[in-house]
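Appendix B: complex inputs.
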Amino acid sequence: MADLHDMTVAQLAAGLQKKDFSAVEVATRFLARMGRDQHNAFLDINSEVTLAQAQASDAKIAAGTSGPLEGVPIAHKDIFVTKDFATTAGSKILKDYRSPFDATVVAKLREAGMVTLGKLNCDEFAMGSANENSAYGAVTNPWSFIADPKGQIKNYVPGGSSGGSAAAVAARLAPAATGTDTGGSIRQPAAFCGITGIKPTYGRASRYGMVAFASSLDQAGPMARSAEDCALLLSAMCGPDLDRDSTSLNLAQTEDEKKFGFSHLLRIDHGDKPLAKAGKDGRPLRIGVPQQWLTNQIGNPRGVMDGCESNVRERIWEAVTKLAYLGAEISSLISLPNAQLSIPAYYIVCAAEASSNLSRFDGVKFGHRAKEFSDLADMYQRTRSEGFGDEVKRRIIIGSYVLSHGYYDAYYLQAQKIRRMIAEDFQKAFESCDVIAGPVAPTTAWKLGDKADDPVANYLADIFTLPASLAGLPCMSIPVGLGDMGMPVGMQLIGNYLQEAQLLNVAHRFQQVTDFHSAKPEGV
Amino acid sequence: MSAAKLVHGYEVVIGFETHAQLSTQSKIFSRASIAFGAEPNTQACAVDLALPGTLPVMNKGAVERAIELGLALGSHIAERSVFARKNYFYPDLPKGYQISQFEIPVVQGGAVSFFLGDEKKNVRLVRAHLEEDAGKSLHEDFIGQSGIDLNRAGTPLLEIVTEPDMRSSEEAVAYAKELHKIVTWVGICDGNMQEGSFRCDANVSVRKPGAPLGTRREIKNLNSFKFMQQAIDYEVRWQIEQIEDGHSIQQATVLFNPDTGETRAMRTKEDAADYRYFPDPDLPPLVISREWVERVRSEMAELPRVMAERFVTQYGLPEYDATTLTQSKAMAAYFEETAKACGQSKLASNWIMGEVSRRLNASEMTFEQTPVSAAQLAALIGRITDNTISNNAARQVFDALWTSTSNDVTVAITGVGAVGAVSEVDAVIEAKGLRQMNDTSALEAIIDEVLAANPKNVEEFRAGNAKALNGLVGPIMKASKGKANPAQVNALLLKKLG
Amino acid sequence: MSLTSHDIDRLARLSRLQFEPPAAERLLGQLNGFFEIVEQMRAVDTSGVVPMAHPVDAMHGLTAAIGDTDALGMTLRLREDVVSEPNQREANQRSAPAVERGLFLVPKVIE
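Resulting structure:
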């Protein structure tokens, strides 16, 4: 039997049901490992709460009243508010904040029986792609230790903003974690840390209890070690929250979905060519590869940038070839002509929404308040200036600017129109394919501090994740091997609206014949 | 529209923005209560406090009330309207933005028409939009600090905006009263001005007739009709003085101080100018189906102006009467019941607009509380028209019914119905002996006595002095203790002296 | 068109933020770096394109499974007008910086 901390969610759930081990044993094991965390992944831990939940799970298992994931541990990105743990959103302005309620996603995972391990580090208000913007310190990438061939140990970034979630899963500090993805914050850290993560269609998971960054883009999703695990977790996380979130999708479920959630396609046996019948009406699944994404030079709003590093490009092509071997039809002809415009469009839309969403942090009702101030205006300014980090301030200023009088049409409204064009490009693309495959990021993880002082360089690195975010499409990242520096490479899979089950199916078939997803950083 | 009345040669131009608090149970975007007067922050839930992670969910009751107002004012109900964020910092604004409607409001156009004296006025609406109220800052009893109570935060409001159609403070007040009547009549707002359920802001400017609109100043939170007129009159005088002294008017927001009777400019909110409105990404567009609008229309009570028109056609009343009688649902109902019971609609109207209203006002009562039931008034009017009593006598009977606390009156009030009321009224007439004497023989006997007792007047009359007749009528009425029917007395006298 | 330090002052005031001169300088450079990459987007001809305020706008018609939509996309869901929030003042004010007699205290608000 594998070590408890090496087991997947599916294995743990099964073992707990068979009483091979108890929820308390499992929780104790992970709490012990979390105590030796070298990556600054956790921001709050409360072993009493965790063990109490585990005991309750053991009782339910004994009583035969357990939920589908009873006793399986999970840790939450600190963007989700929790009653029993502090919630900081990685910001000083929410230091020691205690929410009087649990986020809907957290509550649903508890209902499914999951035990909460603690809260995970992230970029402040989920703004960042390296997890270097946390007020509580950067997170390091568990693959760092084998990173440098010359044997020097260098710390690499885990990606962001869900860097703590990705690092915790990769370092086996938790079998699974929640993440949130606004412009790539699940996919990119999953790719950088060699794990599997999925962002569902916008509206699938309730945003109630997620500290808002950009309301029209934020989506919650699971990060784990396999597509099979992500399917189980996503099924437990999602569902209409009609009384709490006006943008939560009011969806009718098919019988299969009711029974098996997002796992329903994984169960069907198609033999050794599982993707040969996975497309529409039993035809082969058609995979589209956006050609511009795999050239060595990509048009971008600065002119051209280096496209995918060659090692990333090679891993993607190898993976796509593997999909063909599994019976998929590969069309490399699809085109997303406006994809590069997603960088300015995304950063204008998310900054505009953020500038407004973050106005509630004013030192009046909750959170940090400056110690000294002369009057009300001064209290606001000092509180917010002390409480927010540089990247957050930058985006608030950008957002105020693009919404302010005289600039609204030129920036905000224009960005909304570009957003529509990008969404329509995807619909055209999906006429000739079922799933789009490509890179998650142009490079593997970079060294801590490499881009810290160049915000725009960080923005440009999001080029492959932003288009699907703007369109609100489901998309995921799966490990497809290591790059030159021994750092993981992730492949992005993008499906049409509500096609999560199909994405997970493709990822699962791939993982059935590869073992990149179970590869483990040295020293873990 | 008649020529606007000028003040020192200036034309006054007034537009209104009214915040009507909607009579829902829960808040516009949360499930907390909007009940007035609760302990501070006990009705401010997580959503109202803008705690991290909270989101708005729209209250159907608020939308329904917006539709009702739109229908009452003949406005267009937008099939699709959009909620926007109005961004500014203020301690009583928990999210740092107010959810309101900007480019596309739910209610568009429409008008409020009313009488100013006997002149009909029509004030056009620009729009009415849904928005959330802010909390309250309490400045008392905290040295150098303010206390913030967010119970009111998130209370549903309709902001009703007019064109600058009003030309005098009287007209402005009449408009406000009419709008107040409509929102309370339809029941979308309790109209309680002390509690701030109906708050008016007046945009006031002056200009020489024919000149383009002058710069306006906005008088905020006029929470009584009395202050409204005072404030506008003061503001108009102030603006004219400024202009006459060669100063120009600066756009400003001013507050009226009831103690000094003056308006003063508020400290202008810094950067208030740039609210950075944008569509709220937490709220998809509000879509109102035509079916819904029709359902609301079919379930709405008859509107005052519709009812007034009906009173004109159905009861043959002058428009003025009809409008006056539809000041409140209770008054209108009281009239209809009376008119139906006595079949004398104009008489009923006269009595209700006259005697009944006078007595109610004097004792500060409403039509729900009147001691004289419609059935009783109808019976009384019946007795006037069948000559049983004179108008004078009727007033005495009415007074008796009003003040009486005797059982039979209460019986009548509790509405024993027409029959009970008639016997009730008759009982009072008999008790006070006010029945007109219609028995000729008895009257003739009195007349003969009087004639015998006043030979001088008889002669003068016969000599051609018509006035002398009065000298005879008086004593006859006196002798009959006022019960004689004056017309009948005259007829008999002339016959005897003829 | 690039931003000036005057814009930074105005936007900082509007956003209730303050920047010390060196920080303001650095910020100005970074913002202008960002708005450089925005220029290409501004040049795109978007006449006739309907702004997309919401992802669900693009979702309608693709599946019958989504409720609360009309021909133009997702529509606002309305809840019944019912009060169901109990008084939770204590829990809600647990993280408040300054509270007295149930009121949030702030430096005097001047009108």
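Chain B touches chain C through 55 residues (CB under 8 Å).
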